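Exercise 7. Given the encoded structure of a 157-residue chain, write a plausible sequence.
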């Protein structure tokens, strides 16, 4: 289980939730997953995003899979993963940062999230604390991550 931040290309005249609802309504759980098909422009976005994150945040590792382009950031703040498929993206942060330990990784996640929005044109939303990335409160997100992580460590280990 991870703390997730979601990015979508919001449909014209629609909200983030309406776009997500439309995408989900078309989902067929019995259908085979279709491999990602990123355009040349989308691949260029990914390349520029990876370069910017590496330059401004720190070293990353990347890999291409059939369903996403993936970036891992393992740094002093902690670990996060970014998956990108052109028309959507996700940041995942493991629930291993209790209390105040959550603030550095969440600050880094939101910094990267805002880069994703800027470079890709996707809109980000953090459903964990019900806020858009662009105007979101990093402290509120860190409190949520830190609280769940603390609960998990106290009750599940």
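Solution.
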């Amino acid at each position: 289980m991870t703390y997730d931040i979601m990015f979508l290309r919001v449909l014209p005249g629609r909200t983030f939730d309406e776009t997500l609802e439309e995408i989900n309504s078309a989902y067929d759980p019995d259908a085979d997953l279709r491999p990602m098909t990123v355009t040349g422009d989308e691949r260029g976005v990914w390349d520029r995003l990876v370069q910017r994150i590496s330059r401004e945040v720190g070293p990353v590792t990347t890999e291409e899979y059939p369903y996403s382009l993936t970036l891992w950031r393992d740094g002093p703040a902690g670990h996060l993963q970014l998956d990108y498929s052109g028309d959507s993206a996700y940041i995942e942060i493991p629930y291993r940062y209790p209390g105040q330990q959550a603030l550095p990784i969440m600050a880094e996640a939101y910094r990267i999230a805002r880069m994703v929005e800027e470079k890709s044109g996707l809109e980000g939303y953090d459903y964990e604390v019900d806020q858009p990335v662009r105007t979101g409160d990093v402290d509120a997100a860190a409190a949520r991550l830190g609280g769940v992580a603390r609960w998990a460590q106290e009750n599940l280990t």
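Remark. The chain has a mean pLDDT of 94. Students should compare their own answers with the one above.
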